[in-house]
Specification:
It is elongated, with a radius of gyration of 19 Å. It is built from five helices and nine strands, in the order βββββββββααααα. It starts with 11 loop residues before the first strand and ends with a helix. It has helices at 133-145, 169-181, 189-201, 210-216, 222-235, and strands spanning 12-16, 22-33, 36-40, 50-55, 72-80, 83-91, 97-101, 105-114, 119-123. The chain is an alpha+beta fold and 237 residues long. The chain has two domains: 6-123, no CATH class; 133-235, no CATH class. An eight-stranded antiparallel barrel has the order 2-3-4-5-6-7-8-9. Strand 1 (12-16) and strand 2 form a beta hairpin.
């Protein structure tokens, strides 16, 4: 009999989401390896990337919600063939949580099992985490920061300085996120909502970096920036 190592096992589990039908979830399994935990979520995007995480004192990329504090936190990376992507994992007292990926987004953890010998998280990589109350506040604050054309930076580079007096859409979102949540993650739900609206508005334009390119597009007017935030606020109410 061939025994498959725990860290390489992949189970696909049907889980009923609160607002929709059952969805397939990757079961990510980890075993201790020195000071770290090593594991896998199985086959993803035609690869079987390895994950390495370690226990962390706190999430560094900002609070998720006002009313929730995680009971456990991990930080680490997913090692893809073209490079490693930083991740953070937060789990709450009910066993649910979030896996935050710097490249792909925030994904819900439906169930978790945590012990001194093994970790297991059921992660839905097919559906991103919806905006929270703090995401709505971020959008509100970003709209206030970018409140007039006089403070609009039309030449965004996605490099944001706290001493700036003019802001692009991206930098207004970054500044607002730090002020509201204490940290920044460029795939936070608030930013993903804005990106989705940009996708809808510029469906035929080959933007590489959606917020930067929409901001710098000569066809974008300040009125468009204002309605961008207004629409994002409506979608997160």
């Amino acid at each position: 009999m061939v025994i498959i190592p725990l860290v390489l096992m992949l189970l696909q589990t049907a889980v009923a989401t609160p607002n929709g039908p059952a969805t397939k979830v990757h079961v990510c399994k980890f075993e201790p390896n020195g000071a770290a935990w090593k594991g896998s979520c199985g086959r993803m995007d035609e690869e079987n990337p390895a994950l390495t995480i370690h226990s962390s004192k706190a999430i560094t990329t900002g609070r998720w919600r006002k009313d929730y504090e995680p009971s456990s936190v991990w930080a680490g990376e997913i090692a893809w063939s073209d490079g490693a992507v930083p991740i953070e994992i937060e789990v709450y007292s009910d066993g649910k949580g979030i896996l935050r990926s710097q490249d792909d987004g925030w994904f819900p953890i439906y169930r978790s099992t945590i012990s001194t010998r093994a970790l297991q998280f059921e992660v839905d990589f097919g559906n991103e985490v919806p905006p929270s109350d703090l995401d709505h506040e971020i959008l509100k604050r970003a709209a206030a920061i970018l409140s007039s054309e006089a403070v609009w930076n039309r030449s965004d580079s996605r490099e944001c300085s706290p001493t700036e007096t003019k802001w692009s859409i991206y930098c207004a979102m970054e500044k607002a996120t730090i002020e509201v949540t204490g940290g920044f993650h460029h795939r936070r739900p608030a930013l993903q909502v804005v990106r989705k609206i940009v996708d809808e508005r510029a469906a035929n334009k080959p933007y590489k970096h959606r917020l930067m390119d929409y901001n710098n597009d000569p066809a974008t007017r300040f009125a468009d920036v204002q309605t961008l935030f207004a629409e994002a606020l409506q979608r997160t109410e």
